[in-house]
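Blinded run. Sample ID left blank on purpose so nobody reads anything into the name before looking at the predicted structure. Input follows.
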Amino acid sequence: MISHFHPGAYCLIALLSLSLLSCQEKVSPKPNILFIAIDDLRPELGAYGKEYVHSPTMDAIAAEGSLFTNHYVTVPTCGASRYNLLTGILPKTKTEIGNDAAVKLISNKSSKERPKTFLNELRENGYYTVGIGKISHHPDGYVYGYQEPKSDIIELPESWDEMLFDSGKWGTGHNAFFGYADGSNRNDKNKQVKPYESTDVEDEGYPDGLTANLAVQKLKELKQKGQPFFLGLGFFKPHLPFTAPKKYWDLYNEGDIPLAPFPAIPENSSKSSLQESGEFNQYSLGEEKAGLDSAMSDAYSRKIRHGYLAAISYIDAQIGKVIHSLEEQGLAENTIIVLWGDHGWHLGDQLTWGKHTVFESALKSVLIIKRPGHKGEKIDQIVSTTDIYPTIMEMLQLESSEQLDGQSMVSLMDDPSTSQWRNTAYSYFRNGISLRVPDYRMTRYFRKISPEVELYDLKNDPNETINIADKAPEQVKRLDPIWQKGNTGIFQD
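Blinded prediction complete.
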């Protein structure tokens, strides 16, 4: 039997359907962003095939998100790398590759003179921005000297609605950054400290535990606020000193920790391309000193690598608390997670302990982006930190008002095998501009010391053991026009 409706009923149903759709469009919330910046984190995670590393939280994020296996920072030092992240522009002056780049070019400039950070753009588009910990260079987002009282000069004016940090027993952000479990710090002890520490304390016994707790509390407040938010969370470890509660050290058997695969200066290279591990050697009570004339002992190298891994596992647990809170507050389904390491770190590779080179170990870092409603994949194409700004803008469906040097990675995340991607990255340091392409790294140095050009065949020589520039002039010639695209003139003054 067929039911008969009055013709007006169809109109009423149609109007109701349109009304419901209209309401849904109005209440559909903008996605939030949880941005996690981790200091000195090279791709030393289980998700990157390092099965000896205990990093279950970050591995789980990677399993659901886009895992970038070839992400390179633009500058291998904290402040400049973060400046590049925040502004999306390649360095054109030497100021832009220094740790004080944000201070000189953002906080010391007038509103009209300074480049606009993506945080500034988000605020202009209705986002509530909160920073906790180290997002720019200074550990708590305020500008003051290592041993000075905290100032009220914010490093990123116009970027934050709130800039927060719990310095606990350490008193200031700088003290906490170099802090030990007894409340002391490297600077007040005049560097008479070890570069590592294992103490039987709770997570809050070191600063990053307090940062995680603050983030958990802030997520509850942001849930109640009901405004789309950007929460930037900056963890200190595994930056020196390699300090972590004992329970994270206990996850590892030191004798099983692998050593650097190539602890030597590359053939046909120069000491000038590397560095003397000065930051590491500042920790004066370390049992051995690092240098370019000889490797540290295997036993001590393993101890230091042990500290680095323990610090990673400690941070992984703190991130776990924040992710749990995100889920508990019902925010996870509408929050994009970006997890980023501000640069890599030589762990004895090329006889170096630290960053500050344009070799793979210093430039390659972690990048994972998890988008709600998208199952991510592993992405092997080459990307740059410079690309993160435009990517965030596109993920939020916002237009940038700035001239950016990077390229949005959304299309690459949607199709990791696309042939349309640029597949290059440029990095700048030590008077050198380095180009990374599939299979090769080519660096041209602006110096009087030979060699001026270094070329590494990363397909056949992934540990950069031999510079083949003289043996492969055809490759140098082929790559030079691509390298020239990244030559901003920074070292030609």
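Unblinding after everyone has recorded impressions. The first strand starts at residue 32 and ends at 38.
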